[in-house]
Write a structure and sequence with these properties.
59% of the residues lie in helices and 3% in strands. By secondary structure, the chain is mainly α. A two-stranded antiparallel ribbon has the order 1-2.
């Protein structure tokens, strides 16, 4: 199968599959970059909450996981690999916010109504699955080009 040629859907011509070693090394590099900005094995959920002044209830709402699962993580149990990938996105968002404001201010800010989100709180925006709105706000603040 390694020498097989794959026809890309809707395109003319053939696409040769990448070498499996090349794909593996790129995947490892990508996972390494996630680990560099995400939850590490030595960083607990409790430390995350303490760092960003986020309560356990707020963390539960941010992640969408059950209160029991979050309580287990707060006690030091490690989330599954698939859960850690999801938590890495949250860590990435908070790390980026930290470039704009003091990290201790992020937790309280999450609960404040914000005109940029039509009066919703950032926490409500995240709960609705609209975190792209936060990323857009961050981009506008960093670039100095608000809408």
């Amino acid at each position: 199968m390694k020498n097989a040629v794959i026809q890309a859907p809707g395109k003319r011509g053939a696409v040769k599959p990448k070498d499996s070693n090349e794909v593996r090394s790129k995947a490892e590099a990508f996972l390494g970059s996630l680990q560099a900005t995400g939850f590490r094995a030595d960083e607990s959920v409790r430390q995350f909450c303490d760092t960003y002044a986020v309560t356990q209830d707020t963390f539960t709402r941010l992640t969408g996981f059950s209160p029991r699962a979050v309580a287990n993580w707060m006690e030091g149990r490690k989330p599954s690999a698939s859960t850690q990938r999801r938590l890495t996105e949250l860590k990435r968002l908070f790390s980026t916010l930290e470039r704009l404001v003091d990290k201790e201010a992020i937790g309280p800010w999450l609960k404040e109504p914000n005109l940029a989100f039509d009066g919703s709180t950032p926490l409500q925006v995240i709960e609705r699955g609209e975190s792209d709105r936060l990323w857009r706000m961050i981009h506008e603040l960093e670039s100095g080009e608000p809408n």
